[in-house]
Design a protein that fits this description.
400 residues, alpha/beta, Rossmann fold, 2 domains, six-stranded parallel beta sheet, 15 strands, binds adenosine monophosphate
Length: 400
């Protein structure tokens, strides 16, 4: 069911409570090191300002476990948002209580207030109805633009909608649903998925859900070694999930039975240690030495993947091809990012499912070269698993 959009609502003169995802990374001096999540919410915030609404923004940051933690204050996010908008952004030292209420009611049309970290209250994560009702009272309309938190049924993402008449999706939420939902329900073909990351266990439901939807799945990252083990290959000291070998075998058999192309690497980079100074070499996946770990896909695999990817009109990517945090093992991940950027320029739709692969694209400087990079790691994973996200389900159904 299509959900109501912020574009469908009259905002003028109204208090709009907006759940944003300002869970940004901070350094030791509490400076924001990556403000993408703030920038991505600007269209929603600007729409409220331009239409003469009063924006009351709320978010979580980190895991303060239900009590105030100075280093997890959202104050730096208010400052950054003010810089991005070239406009004063108010900051309330608590998200509920008399001071927040008073600041909310002092807002004039077009003004913005950011509330302090929701998770300073344990009731937020417990989805406590009384707390949700307090939040709901701050606004006359609720907008959820926090796709990255939509997989959690918390007071600010789900509970609040029970106490407010209209709950709409913000523009970022809509964009995420458009691309991720479009990939699942109406993909352009050929449609190829690239899955990597550490373990099969983290991606099993995604693999199973995508198997019925894609034309090919390319597998890289640490999870490839459990597949190789299931094929009776030697994997040296590479990452192995002993208890998932049978599952890997089952996936291979299923793919075979369906006639689905499930493509595994043909070579990999092995090393004696996960460090920049490690001794490394490229070997065929049939020749992984006993005392070495596989830490990236090799050059022949990159060519193989490139040949599979190039004819595709839609690609979804989740999980790095190797231990990309160490430059020495980042080549495979960066190569995939480069291939996707080239494909995008030729008209393919390329979607990155957040988390580590999004970080890798960013490091490669390709943020603007792909079609869509999700802001929600966990949320996009659950969405791709075919689960219903409570923060989305709770929004008001669109009458159109
Ligand atoms: P995930 O959260 O499951 O997407 O996993 C991301 C992590 O997988 C990253 O931190 C990578 O360093 C790690 N990773 C990727 N390839 C390998 C590998 N071959 N061996 C060990 N870890 C890997």
């Amino acid at each position: 069911m299509k959900k109501m959009s912020i574009a469908d609502i009259s905002l003028k003169g109204k208090r709009i409570l907006v759940r944003v995802d300002f869970n940004v990374p901070l350094d030791k001096e509490c400076k924001i090191t990556d403000d993408r999540r703030i920038k991505e919410t600007l269209p929603t915030i600007k729409k409220i300002m331009d239409d003469g609404g009063r924006a009351i923004l709320c978010s979580h940051l980190g895991r303060p476990k239900g009590k105030p933690v100075l280093e997890m204050s959202l104050k730096p996010a208010a400052t950054r948002l003010g810089e991005l908008l070239s406009k004063k952004v108010g900051f309330a030292p608590d998200c509920v209580g008399p001071e927040a209420v008073q600041m909310v009611h002092a807002l004039k049309d077009g003004e913005i207030l950011l509330l302090e970290n929701l998770r300073f209250h344990p009731e937020e994560e417990k989805n406590d109805p009384a707390f949700a009702a307090q939040l709901a009272k701050l606004g006359e309309v609720y907008v959820n633009d926090a796709f990255g938190s939509a997989h959690r049924a918390h007071a600010s993402t789900e509970g609040v909608t029970k106490f407010i008449k209209t709950s709409a999706a913000g523009f970022l939420m809509e964009k995420e649903l458009k691309y991720l939902g479009g990939a699942l329900h109406d993909p352009k073909r050929p449609f190829v998925a690239i899955l990597g990351g550490a373990k099969i266990s983290g991606k099993i439901d995604v693999i199973q859900n995508l198997m019925d939807k894609v034309d090919a799945i390319l597998i890289g990252g640490g999870m490839m070694f459990t597949f190789f083990k299931a094929m009776n290959k030697k994997i040296g000291k590479s990452l192995l999930e002993e208890d998932k070998i049978d599952l890997a075998r089952q996936i291979l058999n299923n793919a075979n039975a369906k006639g689905l192309k499930l493509i595994l690497p043909v070579d990999c980079v092995v090393a004696d240690d996960v460090s920049e100074t490690a001794h490394s070499s490229v070997v065929s996946i049939d020749d992984i030495p006993d005392n070495m770990k596989g830490l990236d896909v090799g050059p022949e695999t990159i060519t193989l993947f490139q040949n599979e990817l190039e004819p595709a009109r839609m690609v979804i990517w989740n999980g790095p091809m190797g231990v990309f945090e160490v430059e020495k093992f980042a080549r495979g991940t960066y190569a995939v990012a480069d291939i996707l950027a080239r494909m995008t320029s030729k008209g393919a739709t390329t979607i990155v499912g957040g988390g580590d692969s999004a970080a890798a694209v960013s490091r490669r400087g390709l943020d603007n070269k792909l079609t869509h990079i999700s802001t929600g790691g966990g949320a996009s994973l659950e969405f791709l698993e075919g689960k219903i996200l409570p923060g989305v389900a709770a929004l008001t159904d669109s009458p159109n």
